[in-house]
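Lab manual, section 2.4: Encoding a predicted structure.

Procedure: take the sequence of the chain (160 residues), apply the prediction step described in section 2.3, and record the output as structure tokens. A sample record is shown.
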Amino acid sequence: MNDPLRIPFSACPLCDSQTLVQEATADCSRHPLYKQPLSPVMNWNHCTACGHVFTEGYFTPEGAALVFSSTNTSQKLGQDLERQRMLAARMVEKVLPYVSDGTWLDVGFGNGALLFTAQEYGFTPVGADLRTENVTQLKALGISAILKNSNWKRPAPSSA
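Recorded output:
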């Protein structure tokens, strides 16, 4: 991999196996949010040990900032909310037989429909997202929101 905005995985990020096979290559240059200097090519690997499929590397902080500097229309807070609430209600109802209150965490909350719907069912919503604009807007509505950067570090394998 020759991409200065990605850090290559040396092994599978789930099981640490190095038995990887290239699964697919995709051209992202036509994606509406694609920006240079991001590489237009994404390569996907397949771990033969555990079956995990993943990109060959994760973004540097600079690459992640570039990727998450824009938002798809469908992921903007409040976008198509009423229609999405019907889908979100079905998800919340699947959880209700097991738990009917407490904190509802939505990681990558997008338009917020699941958080707003969980709140209507009595949960305390908390959103985490990589997009500053969405986090700021959710907080302005009185819902707890966390801006999480994507500077992901692969944990060291456990010795247990």
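Check your result against the sample. The mean pLDDT is 90.
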